[in-house]
C-alpha cells in the first residue's frame, strides 16, 4: 500500500518526518523535550515505534516508523508509511486492534495495550505487544504514538508451560487437569442450553501384559496409537484426554440420544479392539489390548465433576468384572456397595459349588543356582463369561463372609495335593516347598483346628514344606491365643511367611512376637533397586536381618534382569516375579520342574 493522500510522503527510517506535536517543545512528565530530542529517541528506540493519524475521517494511518519496527515486521519503513495500523497485524486480531485504537483516539482511555500477532513479509507470524497513547496538544492535530515489543519468545515459553500443565507429554492429549476443567464448563453450559453431557472412561484391558512382556517402549507406542485412534474416531468437538497410565477419558458436551451414545461407544470400543502393530529398533510385533469402557450421563448443570468421574470409573470396573472388552452405563445399582457385595458373594458361592475355583502357581527361584526351590499358590475364580478372575475382585467379600473357611480349606487341600504330586518327581536338593496365601482369620483357624496338619498328612507331604503366607496387616492386633496357636503349628513344622515385609506398621515387632520362618521383601522396594538409593539400603537391610535371625528371605516382583543381578549382588537367597516366572497352571509348572532334571 503506497502513500495515502493527505499524509506525508514515505520517509527514511533514520529520521522522523512528523513529531508528536506542531509546537517546538513537548512536555513529558514535567520536563521539556525538544522536537529534535523526540525524533532522536523515536528513531533510536530499541523497540518498534510508530506514529499514526487520529483524525476521525482518516484514522490509524501510519505516518512514521523507526528501524526496530521495520525489523520486527520484515518490511522497509517506506513501505509501512501509509498503511493502516490494523493492516499490520494478523487478520484474526485486526478488529481488536482497531477497537483499541478507536478508544484511545476518542479519549475514552488514556493508553491502550494489546498483545497480538503480526504478519511478516515472509508470511511468518510473530507476537507483539502494542502500547499506544494519544499525543499532541489543543493547538495542533492529535496523533497516535505507539510502540511494539516483540514478545514471540515470551509467548512461546508461556504456551510451552501451558502445554506441560494441561497436556499429556506422551500422547499430546489433554491431561486430567484440563479434562476436569472442560467437564466443569460443559456441565455449567447446561444452564443456558439444556442437553446431556456424557463421559466415557476407557481402561485398556491387556496393557500391563504388554508392558511386562515387551517393555515400556512398546507400551508407550501402544498408548500413542490408542490416542491417535481416539482422536480420529471421536467428533472433534469432544475432548479426548489421557488421565493416567492406560486410562483415557472422552467428554461429550451434547451426546444426543441413547442411540447416538451407543454408536459412539461402540465405535471407540471397536477401534481399540483392533490389533496394534509396533515397530522399534529391537522388535516388530502385533499386540492386542482392547478396552473396558464406563459411561456416565448427566443433564443437571449442578452435577459435580467428581461425581461423573466416579460414576464412569465405577461403570468401567463393572465392565471389566463382566468380562472386559465391553462398555457399561452407570446406574444407581452400581454405586451401591451392598448390591455389589451381594453379587460377588453369589458368584463366589456358585464357583465353589460348581468346582470353578483353581490355583495357579508362581515359581520361587534360588538365585544362586537358578533352580526352582518352591512355589506360591495363587487363587483364581473361573467365570463362565469373564474367564479367570483374580482374588482382588472377590477376596474381600470372602474374608467378611462365612465363605472364608470353606474357601481356605479348599485352597490348603488343593495346594497340599498338588505339592505331593511334584515332590514325587525325583529332583536333587531339598524338597519343593509350597506357600499358601491365607487371611489372618484363616491362619488362626487353621492353627486352632489343626486342619493344616491334617491336610498335609492326608496328602503325604512333610509339614516343613508347607508355609502359610500372611501380610503384616492381617496380624495387626492378633490376640495372644492366636499367637499361641501359630506357635503350636510352627512346632509341628508348618512355616509362617510374612508377605510384603517392610510395608506394615511394626515389622520388627512381628518378628519378635510371631514364629516367623520367611520374609518376603515387598516388590515396591525391589522396583527401586538401582534407581532409589533408599530402596537399595532397605533391601540390603532386610537381607542382612534375615541372615542374622536365621530366616529365609524372598524378594518379590522381580521384573528385569537388572533387578535380578542387583539381588544376586546383595546375596539375596531367593526371588519371584514375572521375569523369573509368571503365575501358571499346574501342568505348565510341572513342565518347568521336569526341564530342570
Describe the structure in your own words:
With 597 residues, this protein is of the alpha/beta class. The chain has three domains: 25-156, PAS domain (Beta-Lactamase), CATH 3.30.450.20; 167-335, Alpha-Beta Plaits; 358-595, Alpha-Beta Barrel (TIM Barrel). The chain contains 21 helices and 23 strands. The protein has an eight-stranded mixed beta barrel with strand order 15-16-18-19-20-21-22-23, surrounded by five helices. Strand 9 and strand 10 form a beta hairpin. Helix 8 (216-233) runs antiparallel to helix 9, helix 13 (404-423) crosses helix 14 and helix 14 (440-449) packs across helix 16 (480-491). The relative contact order is 0.06. Residues 1-33 have low confidence and may be disordered.
The fraction of residues in strands falls at 15-25%
Computed CA radius of gyration, to the nearest angstrom: 37 Å
The major pleated sheet works out as: 8 strands, mixed, barrel
| Structural domain count | 3
How far apart are the first and last residues' alpha carbons, in Å? 91 Å
CATH topology of the largest domain: TIM Barrel
CATH class of the largest domain: Alpha Beta
Number of helices: 21
CATH architecture of the largest domain: Alpha-Beta Barrel
Low-pLDDT sequence parts: 1-33
Based on the structure, what is the oligomeric state of the protein chains? single chain
Amino acid at each position: 500500500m503506497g502513500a495515502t493522500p493527505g499524509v506525508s510522503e514515505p520517509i527514511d527510517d533514520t529520521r522522523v518526518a512528523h513529531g508528536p506535536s506542531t509546537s517546538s517543545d513537548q512536555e513529558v512528565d514535567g520536563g521539556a523535550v525538544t522536537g529534535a530530542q523526540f525524533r532522536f529517541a523515536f528513531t533510536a528506540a530499541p523497540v518498534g515505534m510508530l506514529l499514526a493519524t487520529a483524525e476521525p475521517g482518516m484514522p490509524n494511518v501510519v505516518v512514521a516508523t523507526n528501524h526496530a519496527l521495520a525489523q520486527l515486521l520484515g518490511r522497509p519503513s517506506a513501505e509501512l508509511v501509509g498503511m493502516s495500523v490494523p493492516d499490520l497485524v494478523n487478520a484474526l486480531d485486526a478488529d481488536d486492534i482497531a477497537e483499541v485504537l478507536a478508544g484511545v483516539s476518542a479519549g475514552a482511555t488514556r493508553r491502550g495495550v494489546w498483545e497480538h500477532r503480526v504478519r511478516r513479509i515472509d508470511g511468518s507470524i510473530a507476537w507483539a505487544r502494542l502500547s499506544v497513547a494519544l499525543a499532541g496538544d489543543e493547538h495542533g492535530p492529535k496523533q497516535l504514538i505507539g510502540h511494539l515489543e516483540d514478545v514471540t519468545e515470551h509467548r512461546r515459553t508461556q504456551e510451552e508451560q501451558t502445554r506441560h500443565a494441561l497436556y499429556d507429554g506422551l500422547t499430546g492429549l489433554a491431561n486430567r487437569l484440563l479434562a476436569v476443567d472442560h467437564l466443569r464448563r460443559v456441565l455449567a453450559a447446561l444452564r443456558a442450553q439444556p442437553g446431556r453431557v456424557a463421559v466415557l472412561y476407557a481402561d485398556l484391558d491387556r496393557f500391563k501384559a504388554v508392558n511386562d512382556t515387551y517393555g515400556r517402549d512398546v507400551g508407550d507406542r501402544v498408548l500413542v496409537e490408542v490416542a491417535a485412534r481416539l482422536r480420529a474416531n471421536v467428533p472433534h468437538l469432544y475432548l479426548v484426554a489421557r488421565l493416567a497410565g492406560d486410562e483415557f477419558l472422552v467428554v461429550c458436551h451434547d451426546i444426543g440420544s441413547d442411540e447416538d451414545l451407543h454408536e459412539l461407544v461402540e465405535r471407540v470400543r471397536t477401534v481399540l479392539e483392533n490389533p496394534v502393530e509396533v515397530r522399534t529398533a529391537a522388535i516388530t510385533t502385533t499386540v492386542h489390548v482392547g478396552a473396558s469402557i464406563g459411561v456416565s450421563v448427566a443433564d443437571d448443570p449442578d452435577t459435580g465433576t467428581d461425581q461423573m468421574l466416579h460414576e464412569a470409573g465405577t461403570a468401567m470396573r463393572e465392565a471389566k468384572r463382566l468380562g472386559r472388552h465391553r462398555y457399561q452405563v452407570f446406574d444407581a445399582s452400581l454405586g451401591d456397595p451392598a448390591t455389589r457385595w451381594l453379587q460377588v458373594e453369589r458368584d463366589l458361592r456358585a464357583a465353589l459349588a460348581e468346582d470353578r475355583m483353581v490355583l495357579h502357581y508362581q515359581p520361587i527361584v534360588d538365585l544362586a543356582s537358578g533352580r526352582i526351590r518352591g512355589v506360591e499358590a495363587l487363587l483364581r475364580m473361573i467365570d463362565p463369561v469373564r474367564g479367570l478372575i483374580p482374588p482382588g475382585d472377590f477376596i474381600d467379600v470372602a474374608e467378611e463372609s462365612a465363605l472364608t473357611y470353606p474357601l481356605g480349606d479348599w485352597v490348603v487341600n488343593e495346594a497340599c495335593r498338588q505339592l505331593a504330586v511334584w515332590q514325587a518327581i525325583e529332583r536333587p536338593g531339598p524338597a519343593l516347598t509350597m506357600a499358601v496365601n491365607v487371611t489372618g482369620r484363616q491362619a488362626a483357624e487353621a492353627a486352632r483346628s489343626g486342619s493344616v496338619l491334617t491336610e498335609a498328612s492326608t496328602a503325604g507331604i512333610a509339614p516343613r514344606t508347607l508355609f502359610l503366607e500372611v501380610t503384616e496387616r492381617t496380624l495387626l492386633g492378633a490376640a495372644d491365643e492366636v499367637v499361641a496357636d501359630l506357635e503350636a503349628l510352627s512346632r509341628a513344622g508348618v512355616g509362617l511367611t510374612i508377605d510384603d515385609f517392610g510395608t506394615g506398621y511394626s515389622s520388627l515387632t512381628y518378628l519378635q512376637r510371631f514364629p516367623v520362618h520367611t520374609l518376603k521383601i515387598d516388590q515396591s522396594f525391589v522396583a527401586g533397586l538401582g534407581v532409589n538409593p533408599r530402596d537399595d539400603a532397605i533391601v540390603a537391610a532386610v537381607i542382612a536381618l534375615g541372615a542374622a535371625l536365621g530366616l529365609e528371605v524372598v524378594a518379590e516382583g522381580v521384573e528385569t534382569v537388572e533387578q535380578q543381578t542387583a539381588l544376586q549382588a546383595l546375596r539375596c537367597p531367593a526371588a519371584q516375579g514375572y521375569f523369573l516366572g509368571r503365575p501358571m497352571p499346574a501342568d505348565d509348572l510341572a513342565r518347568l520342574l521336569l526341564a530342570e532334571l
